[in-house]
Structure formats: structure tokens, C-alpha cells
TrEMBL record:
UniProt entry keywords in alphabetical sequence: Oxidoreductase
Pfam families noted in UniProt: GFO_IDH_MocA, GFO_IDH_MocA_C3
Protein name, as recorded: Predicted dehydrogenases and related proteins
GO MF, any single term: oxidoreductase activity
Gfo/Idh/MocA-like oxidoreductase N-terminal domain boundaries: 6-127
Length: 388
């Protein structure tokens, strides 16, 4: 049977450009689905670099003006993998042009813009998604099933940390992720944003109120001379500039399901590369997930017989677990890139089958409402409720 083809335009070509391009290329190789994405056009401001990305990732064409791309009649999906301050503008233009939209997180750099994108998406009848890719780790999707089925009983605590160290050297230059006018925030939006999404997803709950603290330890850094390889290849200039985002943000939360929760995100934790770990405690057990060991999780169940009680390691690569039947026989492991393949799989099926897709722009807005409530609480030093 001929597959339905959907033409994709990808705006942005660096870190997320690579991850998303690979997902579109691979999705119909692994999943046996009735749809085939066509890698039509990749777009970026720097002609030489975007042309190199076009060739390397296998796109049919390249372009340098996203507005022209959004206006094209032959494009079905606009995928946004650009720096954060452009997400809302591109997403809104794409929705107005009748395109399905997949947007990297965050939805916007302000709550106001995030709400505008969400309102537009709600009215559009189009499929919209936000790339919180960690929901698509099979272990995470499976844990969400266990928790929602009540396997660990009523949840009392959620305890999450996301620690990195890639800016611990004060000579790391002022990349856009350290500039509030482009990134919106620092570790908070970049890393807590993922943890907030995980909490909402795994427990199916919203945030009732939050209180946080933020700190910027390295207040000045060399300006950026050039960037060759995205996060990996930046070069410092002589002059210094101001860091305008948080290095660390930690916060406490009360969730609507009655649980208490703690969050900490920093990029100044030497030795922690992508230490994205969370633990959930219920009345009948606990579950621990660590993204650095994404093919497994730990579970402790109070109804296990005495004498063999303890944290058990569960391999999350069995083919009955979410997404895993698409990959290898006998439970071979998968990696970071597969989270994007799984996400794109659900997104494409939402378009061709009309199935609901989450996380969508509503999730993006609710996430931003929590991020923004934490920021307000840091200023006022008061418990703060996220906007509805
Ligand atoms: C960089 O800090 C980063 O790539 C984030 O932007 C991602 O969202 C996170 O998944 C890993 O770290």
C-alpha cells in the first residue's frame, strides 16, 4: 500500500536540527506505519551552514528565510528547532498558514506569548506539539502507566534534579542560552522545563503552588567569537559580556494530587553531564529513573515478600513496553535519538489517524505557567500559584 506522504519543513539546523532530521529519516524505517515524512526543506539564516546541514541530514532543499518557507503551499508540517526567542513567532505564523506545528521547548520566552500560541493552536484544528522528548523514553512512558494504574498507590513525593556541568568553566563564552533576551531563562527553562513536564506526565497532575530560589554565580563571560559545532564548538572573543540568566534554579511545589515535590536545575555541577534523575514515592512503593541509564529503572514495592524487599532494577527494553516493539529483538538497548523518533511517530499518526498528540501547546503553556510562577516567587519570596 502506498504510504501517505507529509512534507516537512525544518526551521533550525544545529543540535535539535540534527535530532529532528534523524527522527524524520528513521521513523518509517523502524515503525511500520502508513505515513512517510518527506524531508522537503531545511531553513536557517547562514546559507553556508544550512546548505551543509541539508546535505548531511538529507533534506531535498535548503532555504534562508523562514517566512517564505511557512508561506509555501507544498508544506504540511513546520518543525521549529531554532533559538527560543523565535519559537512563538514562527509557530503562530505557521498555524495561521494552516500547517501542523512541532515546536522545540519552550513554547515561548514569555507566558504571554506562550498563551497566544496555545490559544491560536486550540482554535486551529491542526496538530500541534512541543518537544518534551523525555516523555518518549520507553522507561518514562512505562513508569507513567504504572503510576497512573496505581502500582505505587497514592503519590506523596516527587523529587527531581537535572544537573549538567557544561558552563562550569568561566571561559565558556556567552552562547545564546546565557542571554535572557534569546533563551528566556537559564537552567530553569532549559532543564526544570523538562522536569515539570515529566511531573505532569507521570502523575497526570497540575501544579498548585511553588516557591523557588535562583542564583547566577558567573556573572560575566567572554563574548562569543563564532560557533562551529553548536554547543560543542564555541570560541571565545576577548571582550566580556553579562550573563542575564540563572545558573541554578531550585523550587518546592505542592501538586494538585496532594503530593509535595522538589526540583533543582543547574549547569554548574562538576562531573554531572546530563544527570536527569527523579524519584517518586507512593504509599505502596517508590520508582527511580535516571536518564543517564535510560534503558532501566528501579522500583521498590512494599507488597514484595519480606526478605526479598529492596530496589529492583527493571530493564525497560522489553517489546511490550511503550515504543520498544519498533526496535530490536530480545530487548537490545536504545538511546537519546530514539526519543525523538518515538515523538515524531506519535505526531505523524496524530495527523493521519486523528489520534490526540501530547505534549501539545496546552502542555507547553501550562509548563511555562509553572516556570513563570517560580520566577515570580523568587522575586517576591512568596508561595505563588501558576496562572490557569
Ligand atoms: C542543553 O542544556 C540541553 O541540550 C537542553 O537544551 C535540552 O533540552 C536537554 O535535553 C539537554 O540539555
Amino acid at each position: 500500500m502506498a504510504k501517505k506522504q507529509l512534507n516537512v519543513a525544518l526551521i533550525g539546523y544545529q543540535f535539535m536540527g540534527k535530532a529532528h532530521s534523524n527522527a524524520y529519516r528513521q521513523v518509517a524505517r523502524f515503525f511500520d506505519i502508513e505515513v512517510e515524512p518527506v524531508l522537503k526543506v531545511i531553513c536557517g539564516r547562514h546559507e553556508q551552514k544550512v546548505r551543509a546541514a541539508q546535505e548531511r541530514f538529507g533534506w531535498q532543499e535548503y532555504a534562508t528565510n523562514w517566512e517564505d518557507v511557512v508561506a509555501r503551499n507544498d508544506i504540511d508540517i513546520i518543525d521549529i528547532g531554532t533559538p527560543n526567542n523565535t519559537h512563538a513567532q514562527i509557530a503562530q505564523a505557521a498555524l495561521k498558514a494552516g500547517k501542523h506545528v512541532l515546536c522545540e521547548k519552550p513554547l515561548a520566552t514569555t507566558l504571554e506569548d506562550a498563551r497566544a500560541s496555545y490559544e491560536l493552536a486550540k482554535k486551529s484544528g491542526l496538530v500541534h506539539g512541543i518537544c518534551h522528548n523525555y516523555r518518549f523514553v520507553p522507561a518514562v512512558a512505562y513508569i507513567a502507566q504504572l503510576v497512573r494504574e496505581g502500582r505505587i498507590g497514592k503519590v506523596r513525593h516527587f523529587r527531581a534534579t537535572y544537573l549538567q556541568d557544561w558552563i562550569v568553566d568561566p571561559n565558556v563564552p556567552l552562547v545564546w542560552r546565557l542571554d535572557k533576551s534569546i533563551a528566556g531563562s537559564g537552567s530553569h527553562g532549559d532543564l526544570n522545563g523538562h522536569l515539570i513536564d515529566t511531573a505532569r506526565f507521570v502523575m497526570g497532575t497540575e501544579f498548585a503552588e511553588v516557591i523557588g530560589l535562583q542564583e547566577t554565580f558567573i556573572k560575566k563571560r567572554p563574548l562569543l567569537a563564532d560557533t562551529e559545532g553548536g554547543l560543542a564548538g564555541f570560541k571565545a572573543a576577548q571582550d566580556m559580556g553579562e550573563v542575564t540568566v540563572d545558573d541554578v534554579t531550585a523550587f518546592l511545589a505542592r501538586l494538585e494530587n496532594g503530593a509535595t515535590a522538589t526540583f533543582e536545575a543547574t549547569r554548574l555541577a562538576p562531573g554531572r553531564k546530563n544527570y536527569h534523575r527523579w524519584e517518586i514515592n507512593g504509599e505502596k512503593g517508590s520508582i527511580v529513573f535516571n536518564q543517564e541509564r535510560m534503558n532501566e529503572f528501579e522500583i521498590y514495592l512494599t507488597d514484595d515478600p519480606q526478605g526479598v524487599q529492596g530496589f529492583h532494577l527493571v530493564q525497560s527494553t522489553e517489546s511490550f513496553m511503550p515504543y520498544m516493539s519498533a526496535y530490536w529483538p530480545v530487548a537490545h538497548i536504545i538511546g537519546y535519538e530514539h526519543t525523538f523518533i518515538n515523538l515524531v511517530h506519535d505526531f505523524l499518526l496524530a495527523i493521519v489517524r486523528g489520534t490526540p498528540f501530547t505534549p501539545n501547546f496546552e502542555d507547553g503553556y501550562r509548563n511555562q505557567a509553572v516556570l513563570s510562577a517560580v520566577e515570580r516567587s523568587c522575586e517576591t519570596r512568596q508561595w505563588t500559584k501558576p496562572e490557569k
